[in-house]
Amino acid sequence: MSVALRVLDDGAWVSVNDERQVSVSELWRIAGTDTAGVCACDCADFVVEAFTDVGAVGQTVTADVAGQCIRCGEAAHVPGVSVGRVVDERFRPVAPDAVRSPNGGLGAPQSLPVPGSAGED
Q: Disordered: where is this region (predicted)?
């Protein structure tokens, strides 16, 4: 199966199979420290300002994102953040409350994920 992945509208959207799926201006929780490329916070509250690249690792769709932690104010470019998965030829976004990690990782969500989202499996 082949899936078309693109960054659209000057970094404002991640497109999967020619459909806009993930947009900027979302608040993501990203785990890690400054050595992982985010900031010194244990879990950054990261406002996504732009997507700079998109890719895939197996069924997981990842994006390189630029943004800022609203806890400490640190601006960062974070590589390979999971944005969703392609399952049964359909895109499923990461649950909004999932804790993401640089380079494609996902931690446990703090509450139940949205049904049908990638954070539940």
A: 95-121
Is the residue at 118 inside a domain?
no
Domain membership flag for residue 112: no
Query: In whole angstroms, what is the distance from residue 52 CA to residue 65 CA?
Result: 6
- Whole-prediction pTM value? 0.81
In terms of Cα–Cα distance, which of 116, 115, 85 is closest to 100? 85
Which residue type does 102 have?
Answer: P
Pairing mode of beta strands 99-101, 27-31:
parallel
How many domains would you assign to the chain? 1
